[in-house]
Amino acid sequence: xxxxxxxxxxxxxxxxxxxxxxxxxxxxxxxxxxxxxxxxxxxxxxxxxxxxxxxxxxxxxxxxxxxxxxxxxxxxxxxxxxxxxxxxxxxxxxxxxxxxxxxxxxxxxxxxxxxxxxxxxxxxxxxxxxxxxxxxxxxxxxxxxxxxxxxxxxxxxxxxxxxxxxxxxxxxxxxxxxxxxxxxxxxxxxxxxxxxxxxxxxxxxxxxxxxxxxxxxxxxxxxxxxxxxxxxxxxxxxxxxxxxxxxxxxxxxxxxxxxxxxxxxxxxxxxxxxxxxxxxxxxxxxxxxxxxxxxxxxxxxxxxxxxxxxxxxxxxxxxxxxxxxxxxxxxxxxxxxxxxxxxxxxxxxxxxxxxxxxxxxxxxxxxxxxxxxxxxxxxxxxxxxxxxxxxxxxxxxxxxxxxxxxxxxxxxxxxxxxxxxxxxxxxxxxxxxxxxxxxxxxxxxxxxxxxxxxxxxxxxxxxxxxxxxxxxxxxxxxxxxxxxxxxxxxxxxxxxxxxxxxxxxxxxxxxxxxxxxxxxxxxxxxxxxxxxxxxxxxxxxxxxxxxxxxxxxxxxxxxxxxxxxxxxxxxxxxxxxxxxxxxxxxxxxxxxxxxxxxxxxxxxxxxxxxxxxxxxxxxxxxxxxxxxxxxxxxxxxxxxxxxxxxxxxxxxxxxxxxxxxxxxxxxxxxxxxxxxxxxxxxxxxxxxxxxxxxxxxxxxxxxxxxxxxxxxxxxxxxxxxxxxxxxxxxxxxxxxxx
Length: 738
What we know:
Layout: H1 5-31, H2 43-52, H3 71-80, H4 83-86, H5 103-117, E1 123-134, E2 139-142, E3 149-152, E4 165-171, E5 174-181, E6 186-196, E7 200-205, E8 208-213, E9 226-233, E10 236-243, E11 246-248, E12 251-254, E13 258-261, E14 265-277, E15 283-284, E16 297-302, E17 305-311, E18 319-323, E19 336-341, E20 344-349, E21 358-362, E22 370-374, E23 383-384, E24 387-393, E25 396-404, H6 405-416, H7 423-442, E26 453-454, H8 469-477, E27 481-485, E28 488-489, E29 494-495, H9 539-546, E30 563-567, H10 572-585, E31 590-593, E32 599-600, E33 610-618, E34 624-631, E35 635-639, H11 641-647, E36 655-657, E37 662-663, E38 674-681, E39 684-692, E40 701-702, H12 703-711, H13 716-723, E41 728-731, H14 733-736
Parallel strand pairs: 14-17, 18-26, 29-40
Antiparallel strand pairs: 1-2, 1-4, 2-3, 4-5, 6-7, 6-9, 7-8, 9-10, 11-16, 12-13, 13-14, 14-15, 16-17, 18-25, 19-20, 19-22, 21-24, 22-23, 24-25, 27-28, 27-41, 30-36, 30-39, 31-32, 31-35, 33-34, 34-35, 36-37, 38-39
Helix pairs in contact: 6-7, 6-8, 7-8, 7-12, 7-13
């Protein structure tokens, strides 16, 4: 077959044309970057994070056909934040304009932006495990890391990652976005399983009730109302293991490492031990919520350790355990104790007891007492109601008196308030003392020793004065009555005498996180006056107030209502010693001025001369809150009324009360309500005079104020209402019903 030359030329042109088009197409394909594989960053998350940075960024989101941030949109952000100057990666070799940006690349850039824009580090990264989410309230319930509880979330991605451990960004306790979902297993130890069905576990853990889908597997032998360990991975429960063994008995002692149960022995407490309140509203409790001396709890065992505590029923909190201190050395331990019960006498030596041994002594008759003979100062009343326990520890014998709360008050009220006071005042004192003891029954003050309180001023003075008929009557006539605030026993402080005004509980820096707003700085007066507690913060107002006796004040005639304290010859070394002692006890309350106008907590430098003494800040009611000591070597700020009272008391000078009687104050000034006048020679302080009033801290009920009201036939209910406004009187059984 012959081909015409023209046809050959035509076919050649067509062939080479097609070849050119193929090469052109292949060339264009090789020039286009491949789309990267991996998780993409959501536009929603970018907007959340940029808003958190508080930067004015305007990004064109187009018609939002994709939920993901494109490279083109990233470049807009890059240019607006001057990314080249910040050192942001531009990723130009990796993306086409329309490609979605990978999450890892976005967060690489965002961390650089954080370092530049978030100079106060208000946005931070942490790890959380999400137990459940509530889309309506946009709350996520997290369980681990620095955030445990319910937190607001911003990104909708949290709703798709329940039962996942993840790295997240946080600002102002708000969960912003998920940086990364972690692949590792997550372990939940000692979860309370409320119900088990074929497909669902209903659980409670760290105050959160949640449900786990099981699809009928990995539940093993789990039963309802059981403690179990759960393991999660990839958003699903991987395995579960339940604990069946339990023990029960009266709780005698709790420490960080061990728990002692009557009739069972001493057991180690697991590091992740959980405590559940199963009656009423279910709660996860703290270790301090376990009630010493009560048998309201089952203890779940993991081999030889207690892994969970199940508080299964409310107990009537009517028994208190009191540690009897050794007055010889002010310790918690005795070397020897003499005991007489029902006519039989016994002397117990620590060396004759085994460590861990416990002996209990109690009369056969309810109204008879146990007589104690102990080391140290003899007590005026050594006959104790209830039972006396001798518990041997390595340091000696721990002596505990367990008795009904009401009978405990028989020996507290006369020790805290003279029995000669009006009956209504004694009743008010009985209610305060009962509430104080009740709070410590619920949350023991000395759980490591197996006691709720001790018998000293650290709690309430007990057995310092013999029982008295008037005090006992006050206790009996208010039987079970407690002072409550917002459904819980009130934190009701009291003190001896006011200067005509009280203060609030803020005088104790770093105290309990409890609402004590009902104890406010109010005048202790028969009628309302123009001067209130807040105005008395001003130096000139308080000076005028404390320098005058006010006829309307309830305690106008009390010796401690006004007093003076004069140190004629100040000793710099004595002041230095007392400042250093307070620094050792409370470093954050003794501050030294650094270069510049700020103060730091550091060991106090030695000084030999005092240039000035002044009260530079007052709390509510005028109580001294900050003392400034200017010396030849440094300037020191002493914070809180207790520390100020300690530092300015030289232990040698006498207090002169308004009836001209005098007394040595010991280690503390009578109160923090005073003005200070320093005497100087050659620009150095040589002495100082305090003009003050009141006796005690000034928070809560003034006992002599209550006495004055009682004399006016004011009822104990009205007395308490005056000193604790907003509180109510309730019967003890109210807490049992909760």
